[in-house]
Amino acid sequence: MVNVAILGFGTVGSGVAEVLDVNAEQVAAGAGKDIRLKYIVDIRDFPDSPYQKYMVKDFAVVEGDPDVQIVVETIGGAKIAYEFTKRALLAGKSVVTSNKELVATHGYELLQIAQEKGVSYLFEASVGGGIPIIMPISQCLAANKIDEIYGILNGTTNYILTEMFKNGLPFETALKQAQQNGYAEANPAADVEGHDACRKISILSSLCFGHHVYPDQVPTEGITAVTGDDVELAGRKGYKIKLLGRALTGGDGRVYAYVGPHLVPESNLIAGVEGVMNGIVVRGNAIGSVMFYGAGAGKLPTASAVVSDVIDAAKHIGTGSRMPWGAGGAEYVGDANTLETAWYVRAKGGAAAPQGAEQLGGVNGSEAWLMPKMSRSAAQALTEGMDVQSMFRVLE
Ligand code: HSE
Question: Of 149, 334, 343, which Cα lies nearest the Cα of 251?
C-alpha cells in the first residue's frame, strides 16, 4: 500500500483526487500495489467536496507522516510550492508535479535533492498537459541525438487564436472561455505573454540537450501582437499563425531556445493543431521527426499525466528517479535572436518593400512581405524607417 498526499486542491489537484478515486483499479494494476489518497492540503475550505475527509490545512502533517511516500504538488508558482517540494523530498518522499514554473526555475536543484535522497521528482504533466512527452523523450527517444524540438505548448493561447480567427470570437470572450474551462493560468498574462510556453520550452530544452536551460535565457513574445490582418494576409499564402516554443542545437553545440508567434505552412501538421490541443515535434538523428498531439490543458487530461507519474513513483519506491539533466550556465545557451529564419513583416501602407522581400498583399491600409532567412537584428535593420505593425518568424 502506498499513501499519497495532494498539495493544492485547485483544477489539477481536484482532478488528481478524482482520477485516483474513479480509476483506482487501473492505478493499482499499473503500480502493482494499492495507492491510497491520505491527505489533501489546502488552506481553503471545501465543505461540499466529496474529498472533505482528506482535508488538512497544515503541510507539516504530511511532512511528519512516515506513511506518506508520494506527495503530489499542484499548488503552482515557485514560492510555497518550492518550499513544500524541498521539504517533502528532504523528508524522503517522492514528489510528482504539474508545476512548470517550479521545474523550469528550480528543476536542477530539486532533481539533485531527489537523487541524494533516493526518491523521485517527476513532472510529466508540466509540459503538454495530458500528452506523454517527458517520459517518451527521456526513455523512448533516448537512443537519439536530438537536434530540434518545437511546438504549440500553450493550450490557452491556441484556444484564443482558434476562437478569434476561426470562429470570430472577441479576444476577451475567448480568454474568459479558456478560464471557465480551467485552461488558463491563475494570472492569464502568463499564457498570453508567452511565459507559460517559455517555461515549457525551458524544461524540454533541458531534457533534450542535457543542461538546465532557465526561462530568463529564452527570449519570449506572446500573442498580443497578432491581429486579424496578420491572420488574413498569412492565410492568403497558405500559412497559419501559431505561438511556438522552439529549441535547437547550433553548430557551436549550444542550445538556442525562444518563444514567439510564427507563420506555419498549412502543409506542416502543427498548423492543424487547433483549440486547446498541443502539438510537439521532436527531431532526432535516428528517428527523424516525430510528433506528439493531444489535450494540452484541462483538469482530467493533466490529472491523467500526474497520476501516471504517481504510478511510476510507486513502482520505484526505494530507488528513485535518475538525474535527467546537468547544471545549467551561460556557456550552454546561445542568443536565439541570432538564429536565422525567414520573416513576415507587416507595415502601414506606402512603405517601399524591404530588399529581397516577397509581397503578400495589403489589408486595411497596411502591407505585408515575406523576407528571406536572416537574424532578428538583420530583419530589424532591413525594416528600419518603416511603420512596422508586426514581425514574426516563418517556420520552414
Ligand atoms: N495554462 C496552461 C495552458 C495550462 O493553457 O497550456 C497547462 O499547462
Answer: 334
CA 336 to chain centre: 18
Strand runs labelled E in 85-185: 94-97, 121-122, 146-152
What is the Å distance from ligand 1's center to 300 Cα? 13
Q: What is the pLDDT of residues 5-19, one digit of tens each?
A: 999 999 999 999 999
At residue 240 the predicted structure's pLDDT band, cuts being 50, 70 and 90, is very high
Residue 154 CB–ligand 1 contact under 6 Å: yes
CA distance 74 to 257: 27
* Start-end of H helices in 210-298: 228-236
Q: Identify the band that residue 38 occupies on the pLDDT scale cut at 50, 70 and 90.
A: very high
CA–centroid distance, 188 to ligand 1, in Å, is 9
pLDDT surpassing 80 at residue 323: no
DSSP 138: I
The protein residue with its alpha carbon nearest to ligand 1, atom 7, reads 297
Q: Does residue 104 have its Cβ closer than 6 Å to ligand 1?
A: no
Q: Which of 23-27, 49-53, 351-355 has the lowest mean pLDDT?
A: 351-355
Question: Which atom of ligand 1 approaches the CA of 183 most closely?
Answer: 5
Is 200 an active-site residue? yes
User: In this structure, what C-alpha cell is assigned to residue 349?
Assistant: 501602407
Confidence check: pLDDT of 349 > 90: no
Locus of grid cell 516577397:
358
Question: If you measure from the C-alpha of residue 104 to the centroid of ligand 1, how many angstroms do you get, rounded to a whole number?
Answer: 14
Give CA–CA dist 91/57, Å, rounded: 19
Pocket flag, ligand 1, residue 17 (CB < 6 Å)? no
Using a 6 Å cutoff on CB, does residue 42 contact ligand 1? no
Q: One of 38, 93, 100, 200 is an active-site residue; which one?
A: 200
What average pLDDT does the structure give for the chain?
97
